[in-house]
Specification:
The chain has two helices and 38 strands. The chain is mostly beta strands. The two termini are about 35 Å apart.
Length: about 675
Amino acid sequence: GKQLEVTYYLMPVSFGLFQTVVRAERDKREATQRTLQREELQKIPGTLGDPIRVIQNMPGVARAPYLGGQLIVRGASPQETGTYFDSVQIPQLYHFMGGPSVINPEFLDRLDFLPGGFGPRYGRATGGIIDAFTRRGAADAVHGNLKVDLIDAALFLEAPVGERFSVAGAARRSYIDAILPAFMPDDPENGSISVLPAYWDYQARADYGKKGDPHQLTLMAFGSDDRMVVAQKGGQAQRDLQISFHTNFHRVRGAWTWREGRASNVLMPYFGRDDQGGEMENQGTVTFSGSGISWAGGVRDELAYELDGGHVARLGLDIVFNRTDIHFTAPGVIPDYRSFPGADPIAPPMTIARLMHESSWGFYNEWDLKLGDRLTVMPGLRVDEYWVGKRLKASADPRLLVRFKLFDQTPIGVGTTLKGTVGHYSMPVDAFNVDEEFGNPDLGIPKAFQTSLGFEHKFTDVIDLDVTGFYNRRYDLVAGSSKVKVLPDGTVKPEYFNNDGLGRAYGIEVLLRHNLTEHFFGWLAYTFSRTEEKVRSDDSFLPGNYDEPHILTAVAQYRFGNGYSVGARFRLVSGRPFTPYNGSVYDSDANRYYSLSADPRSGRNPLFHQLDLRADKEWLFDLWKFGVYLDVQNVYNASNVESWQWDYRFRERTGIPGLPILPTLGLKGSF
């Protein structure tokens, strides 16, 4: 008469909880669009689980020095590449001093990397585009995880609220600034000092409506805060140095998606606040101080309509505005006259206060034309109006993408597609460069012409090859100027800046990739490229600051089962150029040596090479799992030169190495 109730828990094939894998060919709106899924983003060796740092392992991306987070895409400078979070542009991707990205990995749905040739949906960039897309909160039950390592701790939670409403949130806080001082050497006489990062970030998202509903609403808030902390231990002489620098940003984004028949529309308004400031003090004297507060906002709207024959027409609006209030004090300009022998010239401090307004109105139109079963042509046009200071600038950027299938893909996924792009790109000039007093209000808009040609070949449904050749010409770039110009009233004023800068990059990118399966994923990326630039039209081209002709990256991870997995990353990269010295001259009046520079960027750092390893172990319980990982960067402790230290006569030099071997142990629990 007794009833027995038994609950069975099934052992999953994969240890990724609540995971659904769907493989299908997604329509591509870009010629070269490299998309990484969340499972791939979190376990790449050498990235400490950071999702966006995986982009630095893709072809076309130059290696940033040390642990820097600069994104140097196809020869463009970091500020020429647009960074987006759910299609909202953000001011920074990484926390200070090589820290993680400002986005919790658990929030990511996918990461789209467009190294060039992107369509008119994106603007205000002449390099590449990175767009991190977040996912909705769980619709079935409450889930979450906690990650703790030697640097920071992060928490993520998600839950459904009724049938159509879901919420998710994440927070992270670093504590290396509290731990590391305890391990600093105790030198009572000389002391020890270190500059450490302290950061936190958060994301919160609420969604209404199920996927496929005619109307869906999203509200999301996210932000980040960074500070530099000076850790000192012992030594009175060291205590005279005080450095404080902070930056933070906050954004609130809404989204309304509706679908009616063949039409669909996505409306995304957003607003936020940025705050930056800092101060440097030496022996009681403030040598630099500054602050800037910006209010930012905008709206994006895209209407798409499906026509007969599989064609799609898109019409979009992209508006941004910024109001920035800055104040800073810095050392003044040293006078030109000769000071008394042995004495240092003195200049009064310079104080600047500005209220700057910037806005941009972008309109774009794009057509997705299916001309038969094999040919896709996507012409588009983007028009932008820029208000910077008191001047109005405008640009019209036509773009074209063509994809042609040599033969239809078979049921096992084999197929070859040719692809090509040509397009024009522009971006606004920095507001400070057009300042009436310290800039040039007549500056034009920096522009770029980009073109690419390549092919994609699928060997199987999980193995594919992508080969792309590219040429980028960036022109009308802002460059420093020593010229003067005559104003309408007849007075003469330094020009400070002009549009004589010119850059070009060309090369070929190869990506052989094994997509995520039950046991393995990885890729082999190789880039051959040359980056050249000049600051005056009559100059000859010089290697760019980040010119790295050869970049080879191999990434792999293997799951053995029972929660065990290992991964490796190996990088082999050409050294960056630098300007060496050819000795010096001695000035007896000042009692110092002045360097004599060789030809600009005529030297090059040695070859960079580094191996990173990662091992994971996960234990699965009835309703939760626990994991531990060890991530070791620079396993064999290669001494890679990042910069040079010269002796006081500028005759001998010593290489300053980058990151030594760096092991990181972390714990993670999920339910």
